[in-house]
Amino acid sequence: MGKRSKKAPIPQRPIQQKAPKNLITEKISSLVGNKPDAELMNNLSADQLNDLSELTVKVESVQSEYEAKKASVELEAKELAAEKASIEANRERLENALKEAEQDAETATEKLADLLRKEKELTDKSEQIALREAQADAGFVNQHCQALELLAADLTSLKSEQSKSLSQNQEQLLESLREFDRDHQTRTAELAAELQRLREARGSLVEEQIALELGKSELVEREAKRASWEQARQEQFEQEYSNRIAELESDLYRVNGYRKRDEALVSSLRERLADFSELERVLKNRKLDSPEQLLELIDTLESDIRDYRRKLNSQPVEDLEEKIDYLSDENRRLEDQLRDSDQELQIVKRELQQKALGVVEREGLLHENRVLKARNDAISVATEQLKREIDDLTERQQGQEVFPALSEMDIKLSDSVATQPVGNLEEFVDDLQVRIAQSDLNNPLYYSKETLRLFLAGLAMSQLHIFQGISGTGKTSLAKAFAKAVGGHCTIVPVQAGWRDRDDLVGHYNAFEKRYYEKECLQALYRAQTPAFGDRFNIVLLDEMNLSRPEQYFAEFLAALELSGDDRNVVLMESAPSKSPKLLLEGRKMPVADNLWFIGTANHDETTFEFADKSQDRSFVLELGRNGVIDGLTGTLKSPVVYSANSINDAFCSAEGEYESEVSRVMKGLYDHDLTRILEKRFGISWGNRLERQARKFVPVYVAAGGQAHEAWDHLLSVRIFRDGKVTGRFDTRPDDLADLQSALGNAWETLFNGEMATRCEERLEKELERKEMA
User: Fold this and answer.
1) Do residues 374 and 431 both lie within one domain?
2) 403-418 pLDDT, tens per residue?
3) 3-class DSSP state for residue 602?
4) Which of 181, 283, 587, 633 might form a disulfide with 576, Cβ 3.0–4.6 angstroms?
């Protein structure tokens, strides 16, 4: 919970506002279902109460309108259901009539077949008659003439009956068809009218439902605003209570200090009172009830001394010598007693004054102690009430999800999506170039095939990419356009300058609320594992990655990307909560999926940090320059497609197996060449296992995508060996060493790649030599 500035205490409300506040509380309880916090209601000002009252009135009005519209919609839904049932009954009746017509048609067809059969029989008989006529021509004319006449008569009668029956059946069939057609047209018109009426009713119902949904969403939004306002007020009150408790605890600590000082003072006063009691005992032993009597005794002695002196002056010296000696001794004794008594008197007076002052101060301290005790009691009561409120809040939080956004993904992203395999990498680069150019028709993005080959090979080499270059070269656009072109998902995470640890990137767990605040990066990590995105490209774009030090906030991911299997994860919590998303390992560890890549954009100025070796050695670095227009890329628009991330990993593996021997040949040639010895002896740089692993993944994919092997090696060595801080950009190198290294590099490329040049590495060495000469 963020710290809030301490606000002035809310003034107490007059007694006459108690009834409206209770009424507002009852209204809120009836609307929300939960009674609002009494302390929160008591701390509301009059204006806030008025605003809350107006809000409750509006909510009641909206709710009543919603209920009325809902009842109307339900009534219309019932009417529509009844009309739908009537339509279903009419449809069934029409279907029955249609079946009857079909049966009539079948009957007519059977009759027609019967007529055709009879017609065939007549034809057969005609043939028999023709045969008999032929026989008659052969000499049986007289014998069968009568039979022929009879047969001709029978034939004529049969044909007339057949034609009559056929015409009747045809008339009946046509009449049935005409009747069926009229009935069908009538029913069709009725159904069309009914369907039009239902469509109109459905349209009005949809409009009303949309209006209700809008009202409901507005009500939900107001309820969310009210809840957020209550949450803010609750946080404010908790902060004020915390500050007040801290102040009261400070006052209590100060009062306890005063109390200890008073106890010490009281103890000292008691000791002095004991001494004073001892003095009183001495005075009582001398039969003196008070210090005043001691003073009177001293005055009497002094008067006696004066009298004795007068008497001595009046008597002779000889008679008084002994008395003088005696009186001198007595005088000295009495003076000593007087001096001692005077000292004791002064001590007693000072003690009496101190005692009087101590009593007054003690009374003041006792009064202050009583006041502080009352405050302490009030603090205790407020603390107990605050504890109860905290316990209530904690109990309410117990039933909530610790990872609400991730748990929601388990439900929304549970269905898998059909994907298309990548296939040939060279064709994929061609397709990717066109799709990226068409990703934004208003602002086409043009990237050369060489850049896309490097990017694709980088995907195979590492899951961490660093895009460098001046502003406006399309570092951010490349990541976003690639994700759009392949049907993946890109999550943009703007890096802040104050980031120090992993919590700034993925979020943190609030033990008080028992909830994990899931930032965009954490949601992207989880989304990449869901069925909907498990076979798609997922990118986390760390915008301005070096505004803070990646070695601090990204340290756990740098370590996880070096591992494999279930070990490649980031621990979110020390122990698993009772309810956790189902894709977390052990309920508390977030896996880093194979279909997820981190892409960081970097600018180099006075506001940014330089990347450490551990970050650059683990990542794929790509320098982007300005790209010109490429003709012929924005022609026919391509339809959207979702490429399979698993298929591209298979394509990467196939390329590695195909070009493994070639990569091994080049690696052996580099190991045995003078280039390696110069790097080790003069620059302290050697080939590492990580660089070899990256080369075996990067170079084959670049070549399979249509590039040349020497270009891939040139890029890899330029960003890993010849970059600033390794060979170039150092103060302890000599121009002679750089010249020898340049000569060895040219010789190695001529030997290994048939006279080709390491263009990128040569450029870096040339710039470094020029810098040395200028220095």
Assistant:
1) no
2) 999 999 999 999 999 9
3) strand
4) 587
